[in-house]
Amino acid sequence: MSDGNRQNGAGVPAAGEAAALTTCTVPASWFAPRLLAWFDRHGRKHLPWQQDPSAYRVWVSEVMLQQTQVAAVVPYFERFVQRFPSVGALAGAPSDEVLHLWTGLGYYARARNLQATAKILVAEHGGEFPATLAAVMALPGIGRSTAGAILSLARGERHAILDGNVKRVLARVFGIAGDPGRAPVLAQLWRQAEALTPPARVAAYTQAIMDLGATVCTRSRPACTTCPMSSDCVAAREGLQRELPGRKQKRLRKSREAVLVIAETLLHGGRAVLVERRAPTGIWGGLWSPPQFDNQNEAQAWIARELQDAALIEPALPPILHAFTHFDLRLQPLRVRCKEFTGVGESARLWYELQAPPRVGLPQPILQLFARLVADARDRVP
User: Fold this and answer.
1) How far is CA 37 from the centre of its chain?
2) Which positions ≥6 away from 299 have C-beta within 8 Å?
3) Which positions ≥6 away from 15 have C-beta within 8 Å?
4) What is the pLDDT of residues 98-144, one digit of tens each?
5) Would you list the domain boundaries of the chain?
6) Residue 40 pLDDT exceeds 50
7) Using alpha carbons only, what angle is made at residue 257 by residues 305 and 66, rounded to the nearest 5 degrees?
8) Which of 99, 135, 211, 216 is 20 to 30 A from 254 (CA-CA)?
9) What is the distance between the alpha carbons of residues 228 and 28, in angstroms, rounded to a whole number?
10) How does pLDDT run across 74-102, given as a tens digit for each residue?
């Protein structure tokens, strides 16, 4: 498990990048014994997915931990495996239920891939993970590092991993310079990871190297004085903690704007908001959210065409700002009151009752918006 990103990339060293790139694997027979001794005393051993570490539980945790901190993942993991305790349960669940339990974790393609993989495992592998690394990597949403983690943590098989924490540890200890997302650097990190992974206690080693990166060899302010590798660490010896691993080349972030129609009606004695299921792919794929439009004119035309006796609600809601990986989104809510109309619930639309919400997946900004609407109404009650 990781407290950082798990991404692979390709390319060539950029101009001006550190030139001290290690070009050969560094023999280090001391590394695994020293790491395991540290782990026995200081490693994390009580996280929920470490209890009964089946391939299913390890897989779910590893996918959740991509791009997400451990502390944030724990409650989601516990709710998820309680509702879906097995591959078969996940494969047979309604997709809305899966996305509902994922709401707030972000990167929703992970949830869609989880269920797609579960269905493949049931249909083609008897509900079990296949035996080889290549076969596990062929499943949706599972890369080389995640596959290695599943097989090493759940089955004790010797497979290296290379998540964001491990990249940082190896780059610093062995002086592997350059952007870890670029092909030559990434290839060297994989060679080093493979060479260091021991034949015995593989599960403990895998957990240990992730823990070291997450709790000691952190991105900023690493605790070098308590690190078991400090006496042989290139970064600690030469003061290169800030330079290693190398920085990714920054890209200019794009921004987008859209209008979100918040159509409210009275339903079953409370308020409800019209939501639509989004397309299965793309931003917030498969989730439910209020109708979205490129501009105010399109939104107003839709209101006039689709809603009955719509009236603007004042004051206007503040914009919703949300940062995606590669761009920033600014949503301007247009809040209107309307009459309930038929046909909703029979298609990809439903009335989302704010006081009795259905179990469907919502993007986190929409969930927060609905919570604000509930709180505002509560505050206005005399």
Assistant:
1) 31
2) 259, 261, 291, 293, 334
3) none
4) 999 999 998 999 999 999 999 999 999 999 999 999 999 999 999 99
5) 31-238, 254-380
6) yes
7) 115
8) 99
9) 14
10) 999 999 999 999 999 999 999 999 999 99
List active site positions: 62
| 171, 245 Cβ separation under 8 angstroms | yes
Q: Provide the pLDDT for residue 15.
A: 34
Please state, in angstroms and rounded to a whole number, the distance separating the CA atoms of residues 31 and 11: 29
Q: Is 191 helix (H, G, I), strand (E, B) or coil?
A: helix
The fold adopted by the segment(s) 254-380 is Nucleoside Triphosphate Pyrophosphohydrolase (3.90.79)
Q: Are 182 and 225 in contact (CB under 8 A)?
A: no
Q: Which helix (H) or strand (E) holds 124?
A: helix 109-125
Q: Where are the beta strands (DSSP E) in 108-191?
A: none
Question: Are the beta carbons of 114 and 98 closer than 8 angstroms?
Answer: yes
DSSP, collapsed to helix, strand or coil, labels residue 254 as strand
Q: What sign has the CA pseudo-torsion 188, 194, 198, 203?
A: positive
CATH 3.40.640.10 is right for the domain spanning 31-238: no
| Dihedral, CA of residue 291, residue 275, residue 64 and residue 138, to nearest 10 | -70
Rounded distance between C-alpha atoms, residue 129 and residue 132, angstroms: 9
CA atoms of 152 and 206, how far apart (whole Å): 7
Rounded CA separation 241/229 (Å): 13
CA 362 to chain centre: 15
Query: Tokens for 319?
Result: 């914009």
Quick one: residue 28, left, alpha or beta (phi over 0 = left, psi -120 to 50 = alpha)? beta
Q: Are 116 and 124 in contact (CB under 8 A)?
A: no
- DSSP helix/strand/coil, 379: helix
- The residue to which tokens 């179990």 are assigned: 359
